[in-house]
Request: fold
Amino acid sequence: MVEGVDVYPLRSLPQAVDLINAPESFQPLRVDTSQMLADASQYPVDMRDVRGQMAAKRALEVACAGGHNIIFIGPPGAGKTMLAKRIPTILPPMTLAEAIETTRIHSVAGTLDGRGLVGTRPFRSPHHTISDAGLIGGGAIPRPGEVSLGHNGVLFLDELPEFERNVLEVMRQPLEDGAVTIARAAISVTFPARFMLAAAMNPCPCGFFSDPTRQCNCSPPQIQRYVSKISGPLLDRIDIHIEVPAVKYKELRSDQLGESSAEIARRVQAARRAQQQRFAGEKIYANAQMPPKMIRRHCAITADGEKQLENAITRLGLSARAHDRILKVARTIADLQGASDITPTHLGEAIQYRTLDRTYWA
Reply:
C-alpha cells in the first residue's frame, strides 16, 4: 500500500538468495490500492436496522456531516448503543492516507488482528472501568490509548456518568487539540487523536426519568447528582445532545424500513464537500474544527437570528464555548440543506440540540 517501495513475496530462503543474485528475474508485487481499500471498507451493520428514532437519526446525520461530538440521553433499551455502532457507516469513506495512518496506529498497539489495512473507520467502545492511562495511553514504553485507537473514527463512551471523573477530564485536551502527548523521563511521544466522540447515558440512576410509560423513582437531588458527574467543561465540548425515547411497539413491528446508511452517507458527503471548499488551504476539514476567528467569518447570522441566540444564551445560561458550538452546528445544518446563509430555522434546530442544558443544567 505504501508508494515508492517494491515488495517481493518469496516462499523460501533459497528464493531470497536467487533474488539477490539475479534481481532482474523477479517482478515486484503490484496491488490495486483503490480496490484493496474498497474491499476493506465494508461494514457489517446498517442504519436501516434501527426502527423509529427519526430525531436521533437526524441528529446523527448532522453530527457526522460536521464532525460534531454527540451524546444520547434515554432509558435502557431505547437503541442508544445500536445507533452509535452505526455512526461509522454514514461517515465519509476513509481516504488512502487516512487508512494508512490509522493502520500505523493500530499496528503500534498490536490490534490489527491479521488485517493488512484498516479500511473502515475505527469504532472504539471502552468499558466504564477503564483507567485514565488506558484511555489516553501510557506505560513505561508509551503505547496509544483508546483516544488514539479511535483516530479518524468514533470513540463511544456508553454509560457516561459511570466513568471516573478524572478519566473523563483527561479527554478535554485531545478533544481540543486532536493529539495527545505522553511524557516519560526517557521519552516524549505524541499520538494523533482526532476522533468523533459519541456518548450515551440514562437520564437518571434508574433510567426512566421523563419516560411516559414507566415510573421514575429518583428524587430531583439524585438526578442532579447523577447528571453532574459530567463536568460542565466536558459537556461544553459535546456539540449535540439528543434525547432517545423508548421505541413504540408499532414502530418496532412495522415492515417499513428506514433510510439506509448509504442514503444518509450521500448527504453527509455532499455537506463535507462544501466544507472542504470553504476551508481550502486551511488545516481543518469540518465545521466542528473551526476556531473562533473562522466562526465569525463563516457563521454570520441575521438580526432575527441574533435575537433568537441571545434569548437562548440568556435563558439557559450557556457558556461562550456552548455559544460557538451552536453556531458551528447551525452552519452544518445549513450545509446539509445546501444553503449559503444560516437562517433562524437552522439556528433553532441547533439550539434544540442542547438537551442537557435545557432540561437538567438550566
Observations:
- The chain has two domains: 38-253, 290-355.
